[in-house]
């Protein structure tokens, strides 16, 4: 490997950003927008309440130690990761994190769901036949590296 490649690899390894943690909801997934748009409003509200409560409980259970030991950063980046048991075609932009964000607020992981406190990263959909689950991966820094040409400056 040329010398410059080794130097560049080391720089990128140093930039590796590890998540603060994951909130895992085993075996179930939030409803897609394609599904909820045909539901009666009461059914949509019931699903939202169920997901908000589920995320609140998982947040309280899984992040209790983290919140007790150290203060969370004032702003977090969150990625919704859906591990489905099959390869059915799905659109990642049909899975809105809104139902989940309210649970994070109720679970006191974030003070508010405004952009001042949370930035949502693109949803990731992948296959896991043995352990289907919904995961909220939380970062204290943005894990996406932007090239200079992408900035407004």
Provide a descriptive summary of the structure in words.
Helix 3 packs across helix 4. Residues 146-153 have low confidence and may be disordered. The chain has a four-stranded mixed beta sheet. The two termini are 34 Å apart. By secondary structure, the chain is α+β, with helices and mostly antiparallel strands. The chain has helices at residues 3-14, 33-36, 41-69, 98-106; strands spanning 21-26, 76-84, 118-127, 133-139. Helix 4 (98-106) links the parallel strand 2 (76-84) and strand 3. The chain is globular.
Give the termini distance in whole angstroms.
34 Å
Helical run tally: 4
Q: Helicity range of the residues?
A: 25-40%
Question: What's the rounded overall pLDDT mean?
Answer: 80
**Widest sheet: strand ordering:** 1-4-2-3
Element order: H for helix, E for strand: HEHHEHEE
Q: What characteristic shape results from the CA principal axes?
A: globular
Rg from C-alpha positions? 18 Å
Contiguous uncertain segments of 5+ residues: 146-153
| Portion in beta strands | 15-25%
Helix-strand makeup class: alpha+beta
How would you sum up the major sheet? 4 strands, mixed
Task: Work out the number of β strands.
Answer: 4
List keywords for this structure.
globular; 4 strands; alpha+beta; four-stranded mixed beta sheet; 35% helix; 153 residues
Per-chain topology:
Layout: H1 3-14, E1 21-26, H2 33-36, H3 41-69, E2 76-84, H4 98-106, E3 118-127, E4 133-139
Short structural summary:
The protein is α+β, with helices and mostly antiparallel strands and about 150 residues long. The protein is about 35% helix and about 20% strand. The longest helix is centred in the middle third of the chain and has 29 residues, at about 40-70.
């Amino acid at each position: 490997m040329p010398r410059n490649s080794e130097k560049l690899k080391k720089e990128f390894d140093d930039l590796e950003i590890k998540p603060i943690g994951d909130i895992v909801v085993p075996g179930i997934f939030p409803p897609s927008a394609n599904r909820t748009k045909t539901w009666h409003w009461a059914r949509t509200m019931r699903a939202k309440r169920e997901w908000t409560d589920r995320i609140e409980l998982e947040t309280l259970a899984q992040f209790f130690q983290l919140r007790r030991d150290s203060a969370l950063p004032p702003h977090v980046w969150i990625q919704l990761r859906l591990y489905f048991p099959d390869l059915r075609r799905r659109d990642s932009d049909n899975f809105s994190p809104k139902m989940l964000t309210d649970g994070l607020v109720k679970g006191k992981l974030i003070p508010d769901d405004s952009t001042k406190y949370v930035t949502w990263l693109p949803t990731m959909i992948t296959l896991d036949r043995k352990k289907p689950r919904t995961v909220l991966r939380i970062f204290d820094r943005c894990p996406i590296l932007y090239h200079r040409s992408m900035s407004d400056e």
